[in-house]
Amino acid sequence: MSARKLAKTAYRALQIAFFALVIAHVALDLDHAVWWDFLPLLMAYAVLVVSHRWGGAPDSARAAREPVEVEPPVTGRWIALNSPADHTPSHHTHAYGQTFAIDVVAEPEPGSRPAFRALWPVARRNADFPAYGAPLHAVADATVVRATDTARDHLSRGSLPALAYLMILEAGVRDLLGAGRILGNHVILDLGDGAYALYAHLRRGSLNVREGDRVHAGQVLAQVGNSGNSTEPHLHFQLMDGPDPDTARGMPFTWSGTGVPRNNEVFEIPARRTGAPA
């Protein structure tokens, strides 16, 4: 186990210990000083600071290189969100190799994607979103190094109450349980030359590939879903310098013929005419 992986595991374990101590203190009416309950939490953040200092910043020179040019992972009309073309880290964190990640949502026609609502409806069915079930394509000839699609697709978080639930409770719990809970169903491709492509929030049961498979650019890998730490059916895509999101650093990318769409930019990718069938 690498030092960065060990540090991440220790960080999660100490956070869990903190919550366990607080619950035990309240439930069992323990008589020790309350500040002892916070000791694991302080140790957790100390581990995080030390690991960053010794392991190098997630966006250090190791990840500073020219953008890797790959094919777009989708076809049709889409909108970019949380784009690295506007700022990095694009998702306001370097964790899980997300420094240069991008989210894309489908909108085949203007207004065809349900809008965010303040209060009602609190949540929507995934089938209401045109991205749900859309095919995802391999961005290059590659080898599948990770593939999982057993997590459920939850309802959208398309209102203020649902978003608050996601940000305050759900996201924190998922982070404690590990990268797999954040990513939901996902595929990781080894593109060669130290670059790995990650597709997150896939639809449950939609995988067309398995770990170890060799895939061709344009091949259908899976479908867009709404699993993991996701507000609505969409694709979260990123490149990173290793196969483990817990330890990898993000890498910049550019899509052939498209570049990197900016936030809220509408872009359209023509249907592929080449590439091996799924």
From TrEMBL:
Domain of life per record: Bacteria
Residue ranges crossing the lipid bilayer per the database entry: 9-28
Any Pfam family the entry gives: Peptidase_M23
UniProt-recorded Gene Ontology molecular function terms: hydrolase activity
Keywords from the UniProt entry: Hydrolase, Membrane, Transmembrane, Transmembrane helix
Documented EC number(s): 3.4.-.-
SUPFAM superfamilies per the UniProt record, alphabetical: Duplicated hybrid motif (SSF51261)
InterPro entries assigned to the protein according to its UniProt record, in alphabetical order: Cell_wall_metabolism_enzyme, Dup_hybrid_motif, M23ase_b-sheet_dom
Ranges where the M23ase beta-sheet core domain occurs: 182-241
Protein name (Swiss-Prot/TrEMBL): M23 family metallopeptidase
